[in-house]
Amino acid sequence: MRLFLLFLAAAAVGCQTHPPQEKTATTPPIRQAPAAALRETHWVPRELAGQPVRLPADTREPYLTLRTDGTAEGNGSCNRFRGSFFSEKADELTFSPLMSTRMSCAAIETENAFTRALAQSRTYRISGDTLRLYDAANVPVARLEAVYLH
């Protein structure tokens, strides 16, 4: 009999059910792309003065590159330009008057809007691959996108 009771006790312990452990679904953390660097990045304007940049066929894509030595250079679509930029505070970005060639093309209005936005720039913000330029009244004057060249 003792053997039988011992067998029953062992069977009861072996068959004991445990409540199922709850598994919580873990959502992977949302990874945001690291912010592009202000300097040594090929910035392409996508919006100027609140308007999307539209280029006529067979014209160059405008761009801006801010070099580590304080030089700003790029292409407005028709003409290359060069000058200096200043960024002494964390969010400050101003440009000296830009020198450029003087050719005309079908995208001259876009080029003029681009150089006007650079001249008005006082501050900036980078979020991911987007650079936004703001004037002295904190009104957006341009939205540029980092384009990575291979």
Automatic annotation (TrEMBL):
Q: Please report the name of this protein according to its UniProt entry.
A: META domain-containing protein
Q: DUF306 domain: which residues?
A: 36-144
Pfam families xref list: META (PF03724)
The source's domain of life comes to Bacteria
